[in-house]
Automatic annotation (TrEMBL):
Residues 499-542 form the Cationic amino acid transporter C-terminal domain. It is a multi-pass membrane protein. It comes from Apibacter muscae. Coiled coil: none annotated. This is Amino acid permease. It is found in: Membrane. Its main location: membrane.
Length: 550
């Protein structure tokens, strides 16, 4: 087995020709792309997971949004350089195929499938909660057994039977379980709205990018107006005393919200999956990525400050924090508007992911790594039809039966991994001299005399100022972080690596160390399944394999 066969790379000029011969409709401009990114980023994060992050970190979670945004900016700049060189659908998968080789590309493609699917599962479940609340606001009662997953309800019931102390939400779930209809002795409970919204969005994604873009842009305008309104109104009800202490659980408490906060930012990379449908991808893709991150960071930080200023951070461990705080101060009308706008916002986010995921599958299929039907383009709608249907099924069924908390952290591992490889790919392009072809290029700052001194300073602070040895015992993955930093420092001395991609690698790698072992175990299982498919099918059927053996 030749090791070179795993590291074979795609040619940049061949990929550029692919874009010219694409059967997809080229209709997207800078505004469409920026709004696509905003639609993906401002979804369940700002209406749901921001509450849990605030509960963990207190008012200081607003700083965590800025910290994570910096990591995303460094990564987005690397994405932008690739996008200006390779205007082809596939996102990090395609970029890695060009720079690091096939086995890494497959790994990233497989991780992206998980990222997009899990993101939409989480958002669909959260959408269901807000949808049911919205219906109740209009006097419509949705059957409770058709709006919860079996696992949560069953666990709450067992805890009640064991006379454990339960939250109000758990008591409600236990009662729903007891009153749910039975079939063959098994209680029937599933989250029907989560499945229905996925079905609706999948149909929209199937019939065309033009229709999807119109709907997405309209939804973005609505939620931007609502969110800015929430910030302005909420600012009048802020009590500065709620911001004290600013760091109630210390730095560790703030970093405990990393998964929830990072989940809030996942989505800007989905812009690159629409490269073949852009009018001017080399110019507009880089601009759109940076713009959407800047806009969303400002909104997230402002919302976090308003939330933690309106009520004590300890009250924010709820699934609908924005509606909760306005209900708390007696502004039920605003809480109702928030529920409606949350439904709108999350619909837009689901749409973006349901557009993006099939295009990654399509690109992998075109390369021979997945079965041919995944690359089929509908003759009338000019969309990857089979991939879109499979993506819908892949999200809708789990969304109806899985607990949101089981999968919310899983998204982050694969995404961090993808981001690190994209940043590493830019270092490779610089080393080979390919970066000269980029229309957008990262500002070059020679890391030769910066990375190693920063490593020495950071290591001193880590070991002697913040009890680093204890942190290493608690989080062994930090060993990997420091070894990678040392390796990049040595590499910078030898190859004069650019500073910005290295900062992107280090920021993302450090954030990865904050994730729990359960997330890593699930990700590794997913990776093993993916590599099995690659070795049984992808490696042999790869188009590059045919060239390699000819």
């Amino acid at each position: 087995m030749n090791i070179n066969s795993f590291l074979r790379k795609k040619n940049i000029s061949d990929l550029q020709n692919e874009n010219h011969s694409s059967q997809l409709n080229k209709i997207l401009n800078l505004k469409d792309l920026t709004f696509f990114g905003i639609a993906a980023i401002i979804g369940a994060g700002i209406f749901s997971t921001i509450g849990r992050a605030s509960y963990e970190g207190g008012p200081a979670v607003s700083m965590l949004f800025l910290f994570v945004a910096i990591a995303c900016i460094f990564t987005a700049l690397c994405y932008a350089q690739f996008a200006s060189m390779i205007p082809v659908s596939g996102s990090a998968y395609t970029y890695t195929y060009v720079s690091l080789g096939e086995i890494f590309a497959w790994t990233i493609g497989w991780a992206l499938i998980l990222e997009y699917a899990v993101s939409n599962i989480v958002i669909s479940i959260s959408w269901s909660g807000y949808f049911v609340s919205m219906l109740q606001g209009f006097g419509i009662h949705w059957p409770e057994w058709l709006a919860v997953d079996y696992w949560n309800a069953h666990q709450a019931f067992l805890a009640q039977q064991a006379h454990e102390t339960l939250t109000n939400n758990d008591i409600k779930l236990a009662e729903v379980y007891k009153s749910a209809p039975s079939f063959g002795g098994i209680k029937v409970l599933f989250n029907l709205p989560a499945g229905l919204i996925t079905l609706f969005v999948t149909i929209l994604a199937y019939i065309g990018i033009k229709e999807s873009t119109k709907v997405s842009n309209a939804l973005v305008w609505i939620k931007l107006v609502v969110i800015v309104g929430i910030i302005l109104i909420g600012a009048f009800y802020v009590k500065p005393d709620n911001w004290t202490p600013f760091l109630p659980n210390g730095f560790e408490g703030v970093m405990g919200g990393v998964a929830a906060v990072f989940f809030s930012f996942i989505g800007f990379d989905s812009i690159s999956t629409t490269a073949e449908e852009c009018k001017n991808p080399r110019r507009d893709l880089p601009r759109a990525m940076i713009l959407c991150i800047i806009i969303c960071t400002v909104l997230y930080a402002a919302i976090a400050l308003v939330l933690t200023g309106m009520v004590n951070y300890k009250e924010l461990r709820v699934d609908d924090p924005l509606a909760y705080v306005f209900d708390k101060i007696g502004m039920n009308f605003i809480a109702g508007i928030i529920s409606v706008s949350a439904v709108i916002a999350m619909t837009g986010a689901i749409l973006v992911y349901q557009v993006g995921q099939p295009r990654i599958w399509m690109t992998m299929s075109r390369d021979g790594l997945l079965w041919k039907p995944f690359s089929k383009i509908h003759k009338k709608y000019h969309t990857p039809s089979f991939s879109t249907i499979i993506a819908g099924v892949f999200v809708a069924i789990p969304a109806m039966f899985i607990d949101m908390q089981v999968v919310v952290d899983l998204t982050s591992v694969g995404t961090f991994f993808a981001f690190i490889l994209v940043c590493s790919g830019v270092l490779f392009l610089d080393y080979k001299g390919y970066s000269k072809q980029a229309k957008f290029k990262l500002p070059y700052i020679n890391g030769k005399y910066i990375i190693c001194p920063l490593f020495i300073i950071a290591m001193y602070v880590f070991l002697f100022q913040v009890d680093g040895l204890k942190m290493l015992n608690d989080k062994p993955l930090l060993y990997v972080f420091w070894l990678v930093w040392l390796g990049l420092g040595i590499g910078s001395l030898k190859y004069q690596f650019s500073l910005l991609p290295i900062l992107g690698i280090l920021f993302n790698l450090y954030l990865m160390t904050e994730l729990g072992w359960s997330n890593w175990i699930m990700f590794i299982v997913w990776l093993v399944i993916g590599l099995t498919i690659y070795f049984l099918y992808g490696r042999k059927n790869s188009k590059l394999n045919q060239i390699f053996n000819s």
